[in-house]
Design a protein that fits this description.
The complex is a heterodimer. Chain A contains eleven helices and 13 strands. In chain A, helix 6 links the parallel strand 6 and strand 7. The radius of gyration of chain A is 24 Å and the shape is elongated. In chain A, 44% of the residues are buried. The model of chain A has no long low-confidence stretch (mean pLDDT 89). Chain B is mainly α. Chain B starts with a helix and ends with a helix. The mean pLDDT of chain B is 88. The chains are: A alpha/beta, B mainly alpha. Chains A and B meet through strand 5 and helix 3 of A and helix 1 and helix 6 of B.
Chain lengths: 300, 242
């Protein structure tokens, strides 16, 4: 059974369709990236999973149940929706104590998660003095309070510096390795691409793809980049072979589609045309992500 | 009990709570001290208890605000997310806030009475003015109950309205403009308004013909708290936390 199962989830606010017919699953023991541009429905989906909003139709299940039916929600799910969701006048430890008390957890657990998130030196400082990175750590500490089987974190890398990103990556990978299901949302793929094992990509409230990072890249059909001092001559030859050629900014450089690297190289060799560069333009995950979700954002 | 402990920790872990309580004590202490020290002896002989508790309306605003912050801080600072994830049975959270509001209301009322009576009565005594014990007890009971209900009113209204500024402004209008409703609507209806009920509860002298009795004033104000509290729980249970 999947730890998280979203089944044909639809959430409509008046005329606005926030999430439409969305289905995906999240398994234990891996970090799953929940990716999509701002406004694509990620937070709405997480809120539905946490029972904070009611789906218009469909289901959002955690451990096979709607959130409100969980017998011990804190032990099952740890969540952070926004690192800024803290009373600024409370200390970090004070904030965690209010949550621990509601969950029936001892103060020793508060100190433990402060230690895990390396916030112990700042635990008695008021949160208004925390940096964004410290607030992200505090949000993760709050999510870890109940030692939950599932972690749901909305944009946990937001505002982290490179050291913070590495720290987050290490701790999330370690938590998943302990058998937890970890779902982290992001609108910036590069923030999480070294952390996640698999991805759920949504755009405009709908599922775009679910799979591994390799599968995300695999669907890419990028052109070959060819650089030659006799580009015009090679271009004519390639077009005669049925390839599509476009000049790539420089006169000696072109992008070739519908011909493999081997075909291009052989053709050039047969005609004694020197090649300075012959390569597939490497698609970054970011490129692929933008292709899938659209560059124009998802404001509806 | 868990939720109750959590709500208590929320209350005592922010400085605003202590600042509001201290401000209330300071202002009403100043009011009681100055009015009993500087007031005309003749007037004070006639209206000593009423003069003593004249600062109650400002004190009510402080207690109401304290109660309102208990509820609205959750939405003002976004902590409602984690609160309702940890405690999905949201009505329990509102019930716990009301219980904490009751406790802090009693604490505030006792502080008010201790400072007011300690300071005001000793000054009156020094000036040779005797205070009728029955009137004093009656006045302080009304004020104490009023402060407790004012705090509960704030918790309940905050749970219902959610928006901090809207809740506090609504409370100000209700309690600071008390006494004016009857001018526009007439006593038959106006006397049942929350602000007017509070005036009645304090046993405001000279207003016997326009206000409910002290007991009925308390019952009406308590009724408002009950209805608003139940409505706050029902709305919070159904509300989407976005």
């Amino acid at each position: 059974m999947a730890e998280i199962a979203v089944e044909r989830l639809t959430k409509r606010y008046g005329e606005t369709m926030a999430v439409e017919d969305l289905s995906f699953t999240v398994e234990a023991g891996r970090v799953t990236g929940f990716l999509g541009p701002n406004g694509s429905g990620k937070s709405t989906t997480l809120r539905a999973l946490l029972g904070l909003i009611r789906p218009t139709s469909g289901r959002a299940l955690v451990m096979g149940k709607p959130f409100h039916e969980l017998r011990n929600p804190v032990r099952s799910v740890g969540a952070s929706l926004d690192a800024k969701d803290v009373h600024p006048g409370r200390t970090g430890r004070g904030h965690l104590r209010t949550l621990a008390a509601a969950a029936g957890l001892p103060d020793s657990r508060v100190d433990k998660v402060l230690d895990m998130t390396e916030l112990t030196p700042a635990r008695d400082r008021r949160v208004k003095g925390y940096s964004m990175g410290m607030r992200q750590r505090l949000a993760l500490a709050a999510a870890l309070l109940g030692d939950p089987k599932i972690l749901m974190l909305d944009e946990p890398a937001n505002g982290l510096d490179p050291q913070g990103m590495r720290w987050l990556r290490d701790i999330l990978v370690a938590l998943a390795a302990e058998g937890r299901a970890v779902l982290i949302s992001s609108h910036v793929l590069s923030e999480v691409e070294q952390t996640v094992d698999s991805v759920v990509v949504i755009g405009a409230g709908r599922l775009v793809m679910q799979g591994t990072l390799a599968e995300l890249i695999k669907g890419d059909r990028r052109p070959a980049l060819v650089r030659s001092p006799r580009a015009d001559e090679l271009r004519d030859l390639l077009e005669q072979q049925g390839a599509t050629v476009t000049i790539d900014g420089r006169p000696d450089s072109m992008l070739v589609q519908h011909a493999s690297l081997e075909q291009i190289g052989t053709l050039a060799a047969d005609h004694g045309i020197p090649i300075f560069e012959l390569t597939h333009e490497v698609a970054t995950l970011e490129d692929r992500f933008l292709e899938l979700t659209g560059e124009g954002g998802n404001v509806r | 009990m868990r939720v109750l402990k959590s709500e208590w920790l929320k209350l005592v872990s922010v400085r605003t709570t202590w600042a509001l309580l201290a401000s209330m004590i300071l202002i009403e202490g100043l009011a009681a001290g100055l009015l009993t020290s500087l007031g005309d002896v003749g007037d004070l002989r006639k209206r000593n208890v009423a003069t003593l508790i004249i600062g109650t309306h400002l004190a009510i605003v402080f207690m109401f605000t304290l109660g309102a912050l208990l509820s609205t801080n959750e939405f003002r600072h976004g902590t409602a997310n984690s609160t309702f994830v940890v405690t999905p049975k949201r009505e329990r959270v509102i019930a716990a806030k009301l219980a904490v509001g009751l406790v802090v209301g009693i604490v505030g009322a006792l502080l008010y009475i201790a400072v007011n009576a300690g300071l005001g009565l000793s000054i009156l005594s020094n000036r040779g003015i005797n205070v009728d014990a029955h009137d004093a007890v009656n006045g302080y009971v009304g004020v104490g109950v009023g402060l407790v209900l004012g705090c509960l009113f704030g918790v309940a209204l905050g749970a219902l309205l959610r928006n901090q500024i809207l809740t506090v402004v609504t409370g100000m209008v209700i309690f600071l403009l008390a006494g004016t409703a009857a001018l526009f609507i007439g006593n038959d209806v106006g006397q049942y308004f929350p602000g007017e009920s509070l005036l009645a509860l304090q046993g405001t002298p000279g207003a016997d013909k326009t206000l409910l009795s002290q007991t009925n004033g308390g019952l009406v104000l308590g009724g408002y708290c009950l209805v608003l509290g139940i409505a706050g729980m029902a709305v919070t249970r159904r509300r989407e936390i976005t």
